[in-house]
Design goal:
Elements (H helix, E strand, L loop, with lengths): L8 E5 L3 E6 L2 E9 L6 E8 L4 H4 L7
Antiparallel strand pairs: 1-2, 2-3, 3-4
């Protein structure tokens, strides 16, 4: 983390998900079983990023 950046736990559901703040953004990590049930998948979702470009969702201009 960058010096001076703080965060806190905003929500916690055991064996399901955790939401934390990291500076000005919110990160949610969700656990889900894979289709075969043999493994666990981690899903990351980050909100309040500085721009769409930061999230990797920026569309390309035609």
């Amino acid at each position: 983390m960058t010096a001076g950046v703080t965060g806190e736990v905003r929500g916690y559901h055991p064996a399901d998900r955790i939401r934390v703040t990291c500076g000005t953004t919110t990160v949610q990590v969700t656990l889900a079983p894979t289709a075969d049930g043999a493994r666990t998948m981690l899903r990351f979702h980050q909100e309040r990023l500085a721009s769409a470009k930061s999230s990797g969702r920026a569309g390309s201009a035609s």
